[in-house]
Amino acid sequence: MTALAYRIDRSSRASRIGSSVLIALGLILATVPQFFVATVVQQLTSLFIFVILAVMWNALAGYGGLVSVGQQAFIGFGAYGTVFLAQRDVPPYLAVLIAAGASAVLAAVLAPLVLRLRGGPFAVGTWVVAETLALLVVLDHSLGGGTGVSLRGLNVFRPDERRAYTYWLALAFLVLLLGAVFVLLRSRTGAGLQAIRDDEEAAASLGVRVWPMKAGLYVLAGFGGGAAGALILANTLFIEPRSIFGVQWTAYMLFMVLVGGIGTFEGPLLGALLFFGVQYFFADYDAWYLIGLGLTAGAFALFLPRGLWSLVPVRLLPVGYHLRRDGPGFDRPR
């Protein structure tokens, strides 16, 4: 009788190649403003923002089991925080950084309240927080009230300089947040979060520190949402409460993560690329466009719940733990 040995794989040849390709792609993307026209730079900035949103929502729901429909609270807070600071003569790009950090602080303050809830009540609670923040902004006339407000201060830059600086800042945030999720998934905390997602009580019984891990993940997602909101403002120069605090952001994140592959590192990247293409061609259809997004996400949830990336038989990056059995008849990692 042949004894079977078990081992844990952290990487494979495909994931090492994928990591190298991703690093090379990041270096190439850093040169885009030097060689491409303004439209390309601005569109790629929008794509980076979508990827940030998808990666953060996937970290929250896909790894932590925290299905939020109120992450637009941090998107709006980051955007209006940038406006608030710029109105007090803080340089606008510094204001973007501070507003993203302030969004993380807001998430830390809200965590003891919203993380007391689970499942549906948690989702509703996060949505209520977003609506409350939107109402507070509408009541503040110094922030433009319900009519919206423009970001002052960026007019000191030439348009091509402003687009390039915003692009590089979006790319830097994207690399930072992808790196944070990558490190998280390769740590014991990442394994603990996935245990919490699968069964919170069982994870706690095994010694997993449930509340600190959930709170840390919620703060990370708040930081990412705030950064995305501030970047949306820097990219468009104008916001209004109904759009920046709108629940459509949750629909976008759901679509990207469910279609790409929830609970995978690569799936949200694929989903963001697909959503970017869908929005480019169909965004003019207004309500029908949002209905189409919702129906597509629902169809994936029913018939392909792990998304398109589940159809790809390789790991692009060395994340997570993979238990394998050695012996005749068992595949080697690809």
From TrEMBL:
UniProtKB keywords: Cell membrane, Membrane, Transmembrane, Transmembrane helix
GO CC, any one term: plasma membrane
Superkingdom, natural source: Bacteria
A Pfam cross-reference name: BPD_transp_2
InterPro entries cross-referenced by the UniProt entry: ABC_transp_permease (IPR001851), LivM-like (IPR043428)
Record's subcellular location: Cell membrane
GO molecular function ontology, one term from the record: branched-chain amino acid transmembrane transporter activity
Membrane topology, record value: Multi-pass membrane protein
tRNA processing recorded as keyword: no
Membrane-spanning segments: 21-41, 47-69, 90-115, 121-143, 164-185, 215-239, 251-281, 287-305
Identification of the protein by name: Branched-chain amino acid ABC transporter permease
Phylogenetic lineage: Bacteria, Bacillati, Actinomycetota, Actinomycetes, Micromonosporales
